[in-house]
Design a protein that fits this description.
The complex is a heterodimer of chains A (293) and B (401).
Chain A (H helix, E strand, L loop, with lengths): L1 H44 L5 H6 L3 E2 L4 E2 L2 H32 L2 H16 L2 H19 L8 H25 L3 H9 L4 H12 L1 H17 L2 H6 L18 H8 L5 H34 L1
Chain B lengths: L2 H34 L5 H5 L5 E8 L9 H7 L6 E11 L4 E8 L6 E9 L23 E5 L2 E2 L5 H10 L3 E8 L5 H32 L4 H15 L2 H15 L6 H26 L2 H9 L4 H12 L1 H17 L2 H6 L17 H10 L4 H34 L1
Antiparallel strand pairs in B: 1-7, 2-3, 3-4, 4-5, 5-6, 5-7
Helix pairs in contact in B: 1-14, 5-8, 5-11, 6-8, 7-8, 8-11, 9-10, 11-14, 13-14
Classes of the chains: A mainly alpha (293), B alpha+beta (401).
């Protein structure tokens, strides 16, 4: 009896150990949220910098105590929107090709290519952007430099491809065969079936892919940092203007910032974090509705 | 437009889009290889990034030249980084090596230097020691700056050769070991992979065991799953911010290997939890029941039956994680720094390959070098990709049985 009891005790202890391990994820999320928000909200709570000026300012000049991130928010949003506009159609068509039109061998090759594209570290996209896209943009640009909103959009459009392709492809493949057969039986062509039956049926999965793509684009740092120009002021008004997204603001200056300057970099992180949380919630909701239907 | 025409138009667009996706990949990989391949060689992989000045001690010893003057000239072994060849080479017998005067291009100001271009096989340079008696390897693109206190600066090649030839006995030579290599970055990357896996792997695997083997559906499990999903969605710069605030500042770990690897360990958690969970789920229920029916405890069942079956899945998780660490840059930029050195302790900084690629591209504008580092990274990524394909196929095979 004693032995069994001891065995049971041991099992309970180990079970709670497993639970603690699993709980590290929760603790991490909480710790990240708390640390970033605590540091980021400090300057506004202690009134060392007004929140309104921070959110609406269009100049970031740490030297003269001006910390406005409105132009960065605009830059981030423009870059993300542009990347989505260019990248998503290409990605969805590619996904359609892989799952509906390609033979199994070609499909495998393309899938491998997409996986490889996903595996290339973001820095290398940046190096590519700096080596190819930036000089090319410079050629057609009226500005003196190639680093621009346009270059950023192009790099991001490439970077979201693998995310959107693989998730759309999975959800397109998951559409039941009967849907397609029913459509063919009604006399629809393959293309009509794809666009009127299959894609609508896979809509929520594709949307999830798009939203994750948005998340990747808005959170991307290193690649963007090399091609965006990082100006200290100014809302972008043309594709050839330089931009300074939220992410690069943090990465560029965190290394040497101190005091209010550093805290406001955390505040920049808070704004980014809020964007990401909204995106996460949207994904969560979409996934749930998919399960629900 | 008729239906047929419309269909073929759309088909064309689909082909075009797929073509774009494929060619983008080929273009990027091709660009990086074409730009960088010229710099990738053994020296690139085995040298430090920064050049290093050392004093080498050798015993002078006359070694006659065994090759003819012409092939000495024709050999031209200098590194690509030396832009213009100014004079020489001249063979100096007492050090058994040929030297030439070249202009060094890797700096904004052009420097004239005397570089070793050829070393005889009996040359005393092969037995060079540093001041502590440790062996120094001297290669055929090392720079000589002074001998026994006589500086070569401003001298002609003939004068330098004469100066060296005049010395005898033990020689103290100031040598610049050329940099431009990524040895330290490769080693830092390895350290980073090992350390972050040591932390994240047990946490992730045990966490996944809890989720699949113990947890009953409820609020707690939902919270854990939601947290893992959130972690997966947080951009790496935010992890960097957290790592900076928590590990670097609050725990006073400084910008270091340990801060970087702990930050990356958090990034890895969702990857490991998810793939281990998937692997555990594929182990048939009957296996567990069989084990339990034989009188094994739950724990024994997990460790002796379930986990061994899930090994290929866990291997996939490890490979994915390695890829993630190798590719990580924004978080490491803030927590492990950009110093190209082999971290001596857990608390010293070091830059991984990706951070180094960023650094040379951004701070030095050296696209070729960034691409050369990129080649190493891409090769690693491709190898990992293929390996993970193999391991996940193994998992499938097991299921079909």
């Amino acid at each position: 009896m004693q032995a069994i009891k001891r065995k049971k005790q041991k099992e309970t202890i180990i079970e709670s150990f497993f639970l603690i391990c699993a709980f590290v994820a929760v603790i991490s999320v909480l710790a990240i949220t708390v640390f970033v928000f605590y540091n980021g909200l400090k300057p506004f709570v202690s009134n060392s910098y007004p929140l309104w000026d921070f959110l609406t300012g269009v100049e970031w000049r740490p030297g003269s105590n001006m910390y406005g991130i409105f132009y960065m928010i605009v830059g981030s949003i423009f870059a993300t929107l542009g990347a989505i506009l260019i990248g998503v159609p290409v990605a969805i068509f590619t996904a359609v090709y892989i799952s509906e039109m390609a033979g199994s061998r070609i499909g495998k090759v393309i899938r491998f290519a997409v996986e490889l594209l996903a595996g290339i570290p973001s820095v290398l996209y940046g190096v590519f952007g700096l080596g190819i896209i930036v000089p090319y943009v410079l050629k057609i640009s009226p500005m003196a430099q190639g680093e621009s909103l346009l270059a950023t959009i192009l790099v991001l459009a490439i970077m979201i491809l693998p995310t959107v392709v693989s998730i759309s492809e999975t959800s397109i493949s998951a559409v039941p065969r009967e849907y397609r057969e029913g459509s063919y039986a009604l006399g629809a062509s393959k293309i009509q079936t794809i666009f009127k039956v299959v894609l609508p049926a896979a809509r929520s999965g594709i949307m999830t892919g798009v939203i994750l793509g948005i998340g990747r684009a808005i959170g991307e740092t290193m690649a963007v940092m090399l091609v965006c120009g990082n100006p200290i002021a100014g809302i972008p008004t043309s594709l050839f203007d330089q931009i300074r997204p939220l992410t690069t603001n943090i990465a560029l200056e965190m290394g040497y910032a101190s005091g209010v300057h550093q805290e406001l970099l955390y505040s920049t992180g808070v704004v980014l974090f809020i964007f990401i949380m909204i995106i996460n919630l949207a994904v969560n909701k979409l996934v749930k509705t998919k399960v629900g239907s | 437009m008729g239906r047929k025409a419309k269909d073929s138009l759309v088909k064309g667009i689909i082909y075009l889009a797929t073509g774009i996706t494929l060619s983008v990949l080929l273009f990027i990989v091709g660009f990086i290889f074409v730009k960088g391949i010229g710099l990738v060689n053994w020296d690139f992989l085995t040298r430090d990034f920064n050049e290093k000045v050392v004093y080498a001690f050798i015993e002078s010893n006359d070694v006659p030249l065994s090759i003819d003057e012409e092939s000495l000239n024709g050999k031209n072994p200098y590194d690509k980084r030396y832009e213009t060849h100014l004079e020489g080479p001249i063979y100096v017998e007492n050090i058994g090596a040929a030297i030439a005067k070249v202009a060094y291009k890797n700096h904004s100001t052009e420097r004239e230097q005397f570089v070793v271009t050829y070393i005889e096989k009996d040359s005393p340079l092969h037995n060079a020691k540093d001041s502590t008696g440790k062996d120094i390897k001297i290669g055929s693109d090392y720079i000589l700056q002074s001998i026994n206190g006589t500086d070569f600066d401003g001298l002609t090649l003939v004068e330098v050769a004469a100066t060296i030839a005049d010395e005898s006995g033990e020689l103290k030579i100031k040598i610049v070991q050329p940099g431009g290599g990524i040895k330290s970055n490769i080693i830092t990357t390895l350290y980073m992979v090992l350390l972050s896996l040591v932390v994240a792997l047990p946490l992730g695997i045990f966490g996944a065991i809890y989720l699949t083997e113990y947890a009953k559906p409820g609020k707690l499990v939902n919270a854990i799953r939601f947290a893992a999903e959130c972690l997966a969605g947080i951009p790496s710069i935010i992890f960097g911010l957290f790592g900076m605030a928590f590990f670097v500042v609050a725990l006073k770990f400084q910008i270091s290997l340990i801060s970087g690897s702990l930050t990356v360990a958090i990034i890895l958690l969702p990857v490991i939890i998810r793939s281990t969970e998937e692997a555990l789920k594929t182990v048939p229920m009957a296996f567990r029941e069989g084990s339990l029916a034989l009188g094994a405890t739950k724990l024994q069942t997990i460790f002796k039956v379930v986990l061994p079956c899930a090994v290929p899945g866990i291997a996939t998780a490890v490979l994915l994680s390695i890829g993630r660490v190798v590719g990580e840059s924004a978080a490491l930029l803030l927590t492990a720094g950009t110093v190209a050195q082999i971290p001596g302790t857990l608390f010293s900084p070091g830059s991984t390959l990706t951070v180094q690629a960023y650094y040379v591209a951004k701070e030095e504008g050296n696209i070729e070098l960034a691409c050369a580092i990129g080649i190493v990274i891409i090769v690693i990524v491709i190898v990992l990709n293929i390996l993970s394909r193999v391991t996940s196929d193994k998992l499938d095979v097991f299921n079909k049985k």
